[in-house]
What we know:
With 348 residues, the chain is an alpha/beta fold. It folds into 2 domains: 3-117 and 255-347, 3-Layer(bba) Sandwich (FAD/NAD(P)-binding domain), CATH 3.50.50.60; 125-251, FAD/NAD(P)-binding domain, CATH 3.50.50. 25% of the residues lie in helices and 24% in strands. The protein is built from 8 helices and 20 strands. The protein has helices at 15-26, 61-74, 125-128, 137-140, 156-165, 185-193, 229-234, 308-336, and strands at 3-6, 9-11, 32-34, 78-80, 84-88, 94-98, 103-106, 109-111, 115-117, 133-134, 148-152, 171-175, 197-200, 203-211, 215-223, 240-244, 248-251, 255-257, 294-296, 346-347. It has a 5-stranded mixed sheet, with no helix packed on it. Helix 1 (15-26) runs parallel beside helix 8 and helix 5 runs parallel beside helix 6. The longest helix has 29 residues, at 308-336. It is elongated, with a radius of gyration of 23 Å. The relative contact order is 0.18.
Amino acid sequence: xxxxxxxxxxxxxxxxxxxxxxxxxxxxxxxxxxxxxxxxxxxxxxxxxxxxxxxxxxxxxxxxxxxxxxxxxxxxxxxxxxxxxxxxxxxxxxxxxxxxxxxxxxxxxxxxxxxxxxxxxxxxxxxxxxxxxxxxxxxxxxxxxxxxxxxxxxxxxxxxxxxxxxxxxxxxxxxxxxxxxxxxxxxxxxxxxxxxxxxxxxxxxxxxxxxxxxxxxxxxxxxxxxxxxxxxxxxxxxxxxxxxxxxxxxxxxxxxxxxxxxxxxxxxxxxxxxxxxxxxxxxxxxxxxxxxxxxxxxxxxxxxxxxxxxxxxxxxxxxxxxxxxxxxxxxxxxxxxxxxxxxxxxxx
Length: 348
């Protein structure tokens, strides 16, 4: 079997990947977009997006993704199902092994595979995600004006979510499975001192109530004075259960960047797997990674903002950086030797 050499492969079809695809396709780079196991990424779980520029009446997350895909295809981007399972980026020609069994080769790669929010395994979370259950207060907090809401988690992100939600909700209750927070002292103090933020210690979320039509209407909490009540309940220990009326539930138990396929490569990541991008010679940010020809965009390189609009911006940055890299690569090849590998050639 032979496989064409691509100038650019974009891994991921969320906002970052689609933005990169639009820019790259308009630059005649003929990008191949690998859609992954969940085409469209996390935005497809959001029913309404009100803070994306250009949509004053809001837009559905799935609709925004579909529009982006159509726009990229209109300019010539190719889409293929498949997820990168392994990557060899040590040589100038990058080798990508896909989950569907194919191997593809490319001169450059934009990693826009996103970061998956961690879920807690509560009953009905699959049905209600995006219908009152959310992993992003900044995205969905404004839909809960006047509601009582729960925030599940105990780290800095949970405190940030709670404080943001307090601007809209009548009350915010932080549900934490222990009686000590993992959050930094300053963030914990801010949340504790806020009049509309309460805490339920040694408590976990067991079930979420409601429907996709009505949204979230309540939740079942389980508690034990020694903490970790769900684990204790599973082992037969008596625990207390309580059903509360709430209009929204927010998970803030962290994200996992989808960068496992970069294990063993020279692409530098932090302890949690987020990709480090590099500044240029003047100290300005770029989408370049530690490996020539590999770029990063969106949530894989952004543990802080995680917004659709910032992902779109870094997607365009990555495409522009990739275009510059490929032009330099072509110039180098032209000056080095008369015979060079062309796009039409195949790899055995």
